[in-house]
């Protein structure tokens, strides 16, 4: 039995298969903004009135947010996130590896951006049944929902309802043509006083 396991191990090693070659989670995932947007809307509604300016800024940043995780069958991983902050786009790209144990995916990357030095990042994701719920264990935040890239529908806002113009009154019969006003009689000059 040991000989069989040794031969199998050598065979797998000689073919060059990575441990993630048949991983169920390989693929590209994008942030599920529809689900996250609903959660944020509920949180924003609970904020006091003096935080409404914050809400407006946060909504603008969220509208421009995009995040992508790509998990290759070869065990390589890339991440990309971008968001507009006060009119300037911030772009972060990461490259590294990923592993899977059961329903948990661990992504280890080095992230780069124009404004910061490269930094290491670890993201831990759990299988949600629809996609992945991912978070950074160093940050105390809620897990972000990601869906497989092909399954995400872009949010389409319903067109704003236009106020309907009041119903037009029935047409009136045409008014008779108006005559030019008659000229007023010329005024008599006042008699001259001596």
Task: Describe the fold and architecture.
Strand 2 (66-71) and strand 3 form a beta hairpin. The chain is α+β, with helices and mostly antiparallel strands and 194 residues long. Strands 1-2-3-4-5-6-7-8 form an eight-stranded antiparallel beta barrel. The chain is elongated, with a radius of gyration of 35 Å. It is 21% helix and 32% strand. It has a domain at 17-150. The termini are far apart. The relative contact order is 0.13. The protein contains three helices and eight strands; from the N terminus they run H-E-H-H-E-E-E-E-E-E-E. Mean pLDDT is 75; it is low at 1-22 and 155-163.
Topology record:
Elements: H1 2-15, E1 27-31, H2 33-45, H3 52-64, E2 66-71, E3 76-85, E4 88-101, E5 104-112, E6 119-127, E7 132-135, E8 144-148
Antiparallel strand pairs: 1-2, 1-8, 2-3, 3-4, 4-5, 5-6, 6-7, 7-8
Query: What is the general shape?
Result: elongated
- Which range best describes the helical content: under 10%, 10-25%, 25-40%, 40-55%, 55-70% or over 70%? 10-25%
Strand order of the largest sheet: 1-2-3-4-5-6-7-8
Question: Uncertain regions: pLDDT < 50 for 5+ in a row?
Answer: 1-22, 155-163
**What structural category do the secondary elements indicate?**
alpha+beta
How many angstroms separate the termini?
148 Å
**Helix segment tally:** 3
Mean pLDDT across residues: 75
Strand content: 25-35%
Largest sheet: 8 strands, antiparallel, barrel
Counted beta strands: 8
Radius of gyration: 35 Å
The succession of helices and strands, N to C, reads: HEHHEEEEEEE
């Amino acid at each position: 039995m040991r000989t069989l396991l040794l031969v199998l191990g050598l065979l797998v090693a000689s073919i060059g298969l990575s441990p993630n070659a048949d991983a169920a989670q390989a693929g590209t995932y994008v942030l599920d903004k529809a689900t996250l947007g609903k959660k944020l809307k509920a949180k924003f509604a609970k904020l006091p009135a003096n935080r409404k300016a914050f809400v407006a800024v946060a909504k603008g940043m969220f509208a421009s947010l995009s995040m992508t995780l790509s998990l290759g069958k070869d065990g390589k991983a890339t991440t990309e996130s971008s968001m507009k902050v006060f009119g300037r786009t911030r772009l972060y790209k990461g490259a590294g590896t990923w592993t899977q144990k059961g329903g948990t995916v661990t992504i280890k990357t080095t992230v780069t951006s124009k404004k910061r030095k490269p930094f290491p990042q670890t993201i831990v994701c759990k299988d949600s049944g629809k996609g992945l719920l991912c978070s950074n264990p160093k940050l105390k935040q809620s897990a972000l929902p990601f869906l497989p890239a092909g399954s995400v529908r872009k949010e389409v806002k319903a067109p704003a309802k236009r106020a309907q113009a009041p119903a037009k009154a029935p047409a009136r019969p045409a008014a008779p043509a108006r005559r030019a006003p008659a000229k007023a009689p010329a005024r008599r000059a006042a008699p001259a006083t001596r």
